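Extended Data, panel c. Modelled sequence:
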Amino acid sequence: MSAAGASDGNGVVAGARRQGLGELLRRTAARVPDKTALVWRERRESFAELDAAVNRVAHSLADRGVAQGDRIALYSHNCREFVLLYFALARLGAISVPINFMLTADEVAYILRHSGATGLIAEDALGSEAEAAVKQLGDNDIRLFGWIGLNGLPVAAGWEDASAWENHSDACEPDVRIGDDDPVQLMYTSGTESRPKGAIMSGRGLIAQYVSAIVDGRMSADDIEVHALPLYHCAQLHCFLTPDIYLGATSILLPGPDPSTILRTVQTERATKLFCPPTVWLSLLRHPEFDSYDLSSLRKGYYGASIMPVEVLHELAERLPGVGLANFYGQTELAPLATVLAPEDQLTKPGSAGRPALNVETRVVDDDGVPVGVGVIGEIVHRSPQAMLGYWNDPEKTADAFRDGWFHSGDLGVLDAEGYLSVVDRKKDMIKTGGENVASREVEEVLFQHPAISEAAVVGIPHPHWIEAVTAIVVMRAGETVTADSVIAHCRERLAGFKVPKFVTFVAALPKNPSGKILKRELRTAHAHLARG
């Protein structure tokens, strides 16, 4: 190749080699235009129709000043509009910023401020929280306010009805050149710090992740999948919804994981595929009418966020014998899939996170980054094109996370002789409760704001429903009295509901090592009985 051809000064070669999120939908629409892509409420939409709708929304956003590199926050429950906006922003080269709809106004404001968002598109039912968050920002750069009318509430003053954006006359794809490593999304982690970090995702990284999920998840174009878990979370969005679009599979979108609705939808749509964290699989099994539904179409089941109890694995195998289960382990920074426990390994390797996914290398290392032996506990590290570009506006944390050329997960694990990974602890005490991540330090900081509390530690203890329950162990100030209910009320005013402690217990002192570090492993053991009643 000539030097001129290699440099591609006019971008003609790069244009012909385009491979971004927008290309995935466009190519599927060209391949299977009439196949059902998305089912939302009573609406069934083909890939050609979905592709055209995304283009119209993209042009409307561009007319309103949204440009490449802009950060646009999406604050909504699952809905068709979320999917349209996600792909429309990608086609403009704008950076979508999904926000957890369970966060408080304070927490939403932090993400808006930290990301430098120039647009906020919110569901009507979340309008008051959205407005409260914006009010906290004071002077800010937000100039686009979109209102998603899912619940029939009137459009608030100063906001624009987002449904009208689909009426644009131009259904052709916008001509925007987006580089493989240009940022396309900021995914805010629940993380291990007092404040979440923004993981910068690129098109190249996400597509590498989709390939891993498709291959190791044994996904195919004839899948019919129910999407009930939130799309603001990378698991549902990047392990399942977008791979389905990539393949040309059919997606049934639900607003949330209501057990009755999931069971009814699997039956009526003859769904073949379903992802749920263990807590939701448990809610399905415990539904009083579970056995009355025809779930025989279901062939592929997935879980993640926490380990599935062995007893539940046995029950699922007995009551859903035609379903092959897979455990997807990972984290946001890996987009998020890192390892997979295949269906045939569920009962022979119970509790394992499996082996590295197709595009991932995984090691377990000591504090010096040296690989440890079989059966030795160390930190789990990964090397993969799926990895984030870094943390938004945080070069120090980025450098720390990518030490020695590997991404350091912060999780502790152990490898067996066959290369199967087991996660044994979280190096920085992240709690996974009901499929959500909770940073213990964030809850502890709120507890320390209580005038009667001297010391506090927050841990996750095993729970039959939540898998891990957020638990606060509290030392009161001398001469002070406080009740568990008042501590919980204090937290509820300052934290999203899933972060609020399920249990509060009082002790005279917290166990510590000689250097003063609180021994959280001892606390988990000593207070495990709280979840047993």
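The radius of gyration is 23 Å. This feature is highlighted in the accompanying rendering.
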